Structures are given as structure tokens and as C-alpha cells.
Amino acid sequence: VAHTGRTVGRLGEGDWDGKVSEIKKKIKSILPGTSCDLLPDTSHLPPEHSDVVIVGGGVLGLSVAYWLKKLESRRGGIRVLVVERDYTYSQASTGLSVGGICQQFSLPENIQLSLFSASFLRNINEYLAVTNAPPLDLQFNPSGYLLLASEKDAAAMESNVKVQKQEGAKVCLMSPDQLRNKFPWISTEGVALASYGMENEGWFDPWCLLQGLRQKVESMGVFFCQGEVTRFVSSSQRMLTTDDEMVILKRIHEVHVKMDHSLEYQPVECSIVINAAGAWSAQIAALAGIGKGPPGTLQGTKLPVEPRKRYVYVWHCPQGPGLETPLVADTSGAYFRREGLGSNYLGGRSPIEEEEPDPENLEVDHDFFQEKVWPHLALRVPAFETLKVQTAWAGYYDYNTFDQNGVVGPHPLVVNMYFATGFSGHGLQQAPGVGRAVAEMILEGSFQTIDLSPFLFNRFYLGEKTQENNTM
Amino acid sequence: MAAPWLSLRLVAPMWNGTRGIHRLGGAVVPEGNQKKERTMLQFLTNHFYDVEALRGYLLQREMSKVHMKNRFRDKEWIRPDKYGHFSPEFWNFREVPVEAVDASDCEINYEGLDNLLLLKELQSLSLQRCPHVDDWCLSRLYPLADSLQELSLAGCPRVSERGLACLHHLQNLRRLDISDLPAVSNPGLTQILVEEMLPNCKVVGVDWAEGLKLGPEEQPQDTASPALA
Q1: CA B95 vs CA A4, A225, B65, B115, B139: distances in Å
Q2: Model pTM score
Q3: B186 in contact with A at a CB cutoff of 8 Å?
Q4: Which residues of A touch B169 (CB under 8 A)?
Q5: Which residues form a coiled coil (chain B) (predicted)?
Q6: Chain B residues lying within 8 Å of A144, measured CB to CB
């Protein structure tokens, strides 16, 4: 019916215009090619299938995603989904970090990870280049770390520096006299030995790294989803070991991702799950059934990672140490570094076990600075007696209560859950190396460049501690 | 027969603050023997020809040493020929320590500095306008601390105040040029902080008053508009 819109007198009076619009609507609904609202909008949901699901979108999760896409043998060969609960990263350890990188560890693996991260950061614009995006400026301060040791720790420091030099870190030992010579603002009371990193050590802006990773990883085709992982659906398989013991191996088949502020969830079918949830990794592990068994058995070994709250304070001190100041870590565990050109400093101190603050929230305890941090700072740097605190914040360590070192690699029983967590305060500086190691483990089946076997989950059951002596 | 007494003083090139990279290894003045030896030898020379001849020989040796040290004065630059090859005589100069390197406008980067850091007697280094020299590169310069006296970073687009902080290892530095660094956020303040960091060094390039705002009483008089409060 070709309708021209003219009122034809022959059809008579009445509501001709109303009838016209009615007829128009009817025709529209019959003709093909009209918009069909039969299916609901699912653009906010994650995809239904994904090869790898990474739980946690902080620097470690994004690093694993980056290396998975970088090392895949065919472009588009692996579909990766990153699930992050909080897009603002308000509680994520990455953004709240002090941003330091140093090679002064006692374990060779940690030193190698840091060395690789330093070269990653140095060439960051080659690794994370995105077409038409401006180059990243990490604001890296190559000022180094200065670790001070008292009489009783001096021997350990000496042997650590030997290992560090063997691995290729540029660290030198300094006596109290040399310290006073180089840094006249330091008081060497109680200091027997110091180790000073000359190259590849310092601090940078962690947000910039996070942003850079995020935009690169998106450009490589990784899917992002804001949601919370609430359930794993897995299948089990009974197998016999060589000693005729029954072992139940589990394999996660589905991840249920719940959307924010709603009950809606999406089951994502996947083949590999990576636990990079930082301070909340233990909850994710518990969802997968890790630790549900009689204590003392492999099934009953929980992931020993828990959130620990750490405070960072910013203060102003006009007569404080000058431009050459490294990040100084005192014998008491207090540390500080410069922040910018304007005589501002930031620092803090790790509390002892008995004084651990409640990790329920991220509120700052200012008394802690007055009583536990300031006295040590003022002792070490007399100029800090007249400082004035400007601001402070708190962040979480994903603290490994077993041996304060990371957990990397697959779980022995839940065979397709890989860990990249538990770094207890040095996750940011080791993220590039750990991401590469996990990607190698998934794609090649074993560690190719840096061997992180001492960081596997098995050590919790076997009781073999991979202890790091130089934590801050 | 008294041989003319020649007093020789051999002196290493002294640092003179106004000299630049191209005028190092300046005048070398000969130097003298110990007092006791002098009187004894002088006495013997006045009485024996052989001793005179010996002293003449020793004098010749000292003079040839001085000439050796000054042998590059007034010489031409050693350049490659039209095929880009250096003449084989260049190989004779293997043992000569390199005192000054001018790498201005050069594409040297972090890995390329490996070559410069081997020069244990480098006194003057110019990295002006090098596009790839950044803060990471500056953190590598500390092996030159014993000898480096002059460093120029003028016009390097990637050097910021964070890299300048690592220069405090270079305690023998006497002249540092940090003019025209676009990546430095506050040049005036940086100049002051670098001067505090290196007290024996003359830091050139930025006027510390740059970036300061004039006080209300110092505002320039504006003739067009009536005077404000």
C-alpha cells in the first residue's frame, strides 16, 4: 500500500491522521529489518568462554596478561579475561605503594627478578608501546637504596652483598666513615655496615606502570570485566600415586563472575585460572577448595597469604637531606625517601608482629608515626627532629605468613589454578619478571628464563621455607 | 769546567677553571731533583767529565719524557680517510689515555655508554643535545668519579632533575653544564639543589632567579593603565 499522506476525501472524515500513524506502526512491525529487542543487552558481562581468567587486575594480574599475549605463538591464540572487583583501585596495593625497586635481596631468584624488572622499566616504551599513544614517563629516580645494618646483622649483609654482586647487581658496601663522608646528614650511631645500590635501584610512579600495562593489554585484545569472582565450578578425578595413595585432582571448569551492585552473574567457561588477587588471594583460593581438608595434608594446606596494613607518611622538612638522598632503610626497620624537589619526604616502618594493625580498613593511625617511626628517623637523621607531617595513607601487603616470599606456579591438586601473589611488599618491583614466569609456565610448561621453583606452592606442605632475609 | 745548572721541573697539567675541553694538556714545565743529590752531584760534575756526561744523559731523558707527554700539541686531528678507515699508525696510540670525549649530538644510548665507562682517565665529557641520554644513563656515570672534572648535559631532552641527583658520585667534578634541559620541572630550584649537592663544582646554565615571581613593589610600571594598589 503506497501511502502518500494526503487526505483522500473519498475515504471520509474522522481521525485520518491517527489512523495514518497506526497503519505506519503496523507496517513497520511487519517489514523485515526492524530492530529486534528479543535479546537483552549483555555488553557489561564478561564473555561466556575464555581460555585464561585472571582474578585481580593489579600490576601482577596485568603483567601476567601482558606476557601471555606477548609470548603466545599465534596472534589471537589465547583469549584472556581479567576480572577486577574495583575499577578505582582504591584498595589495591599497586597504587598505594611507595614504588621502590631494589636488588638488595638474599635470594638469587629475587635479585634476578628485580634486575629484569629494572631493564623492563628502562625500556618500558619499547615493551608497552601503543600506536598513537604518548610515551610513558615513569618518573624514575635512580637514587638507589641504602640499607643500614647494626653489629649483629653486619655479617648477613656482607654475605648478601656477595650474592647480589654474583648475580650482577651493582651494590657496594660502606663503612660508617664512608657513610658520614658521603651523606653528612646521617648519624652513624649503631650502624656497623651499609650497602648502597649504585644502579638500577630507586623509585618510580606505580600508577604510570599500571596505566601503561592497562592500555597496552587492552590494545592486545585482553578482555576486562568489573566484577567479583564468587564461585568456581570444578570437576574432580581420583588418581593413585606410585605409593598407591588416593589423590583427588580438581580442575576448574567455570568461574562465576558477579556484577557490581546486582545479583547478576556470568559463568565463564575457562581452562586456566590465575590467582593474582593480592591481599585477598586466600579467599579466592578457599573458593577453589584449597585448604579444605584435614590439617597436615596437602588438601588441608591453605594459601598462607593475608592482608597486612602498612602506613606511609609524608612530611616536610626544610633542612632535610639533599637531592642525592637514596631510599634509606634504617636498622630499626624505618625507611624514608625524598618526594619531589620541595623538601618533602615519605616513609614508614613495618610494625613488629605484636603490633600489627587490624586490616579491616585502610584508616591511618597517626600515633604510630609519633611513637614508632619518628623517634627512629630523628635518631638516624638529626635534621628530622623538626619535621611536619603533611599527609598519610595506608595500603595492604599481600603478606605471606610462611616465609614472606611470593607464591608462583600451579597448585599441586587444583591443577589449573596458578598463583602470582604473596609478595609481601615487593610485588610491584617483581611484577614484570613474575608475569613472564607465569606466562612461560602456562605456555611452555616450565620456567624458561628465571627459575622460580623455590616459589611453588608445594613448599607450604613440605615445610621448606624460602626465606628472604632483607624484607622491609 | 762547570756545566750549566739546569733546573728541570716536570709538572702534570694543572686544572685551570677557564680552560675548555680543547685546551687540556697545556703547558708542561720541567721539574727538579732532590736538594742533597743536587749538591753532591754538582760537586762531582765540577770535577769529573764522566759525571757531567751522566748528568747530561739524565737531562736528555727527562726532556724526552716531557716531550712524550706533550707530543699531541699543535698536531692535526686524526681523521678517517675517504673510505672511513683510520691509518695503521692510529694503532700505535693504544696506550694513550683518552682525556676528553665530545659526544655532542651523538645517538649514544644506555648500552653505548659501556664504551665510555672503560676510560679510567676521562676528564671531560660532553653529552650536549644527545637525544637518547636520559636519567638511567646518568646513573651509570659513577665509575668515572675519580677522573671526571667536566661534564656537559646541555640540551639533552630526556634528562630530568631525577637523573641529576645521581651526579653526586662525581666528587671531582669542577664544571657542570645543565642549561636548556626541557625535562627539568623547575630549573631554578634544581640549580640550587645541584649546587648544594656538589659544593666543589661550578654549576652553569640556569639562573637561580628563573621562575621566581616579582613581589608587588617590584612590578614593572605599566604606563598604559593607571597605577593599581
Answers
A1: 100, 64, 15, 16, 28
A2: 0.82
A3: yes
A4: 198
A5: none
A6: 166
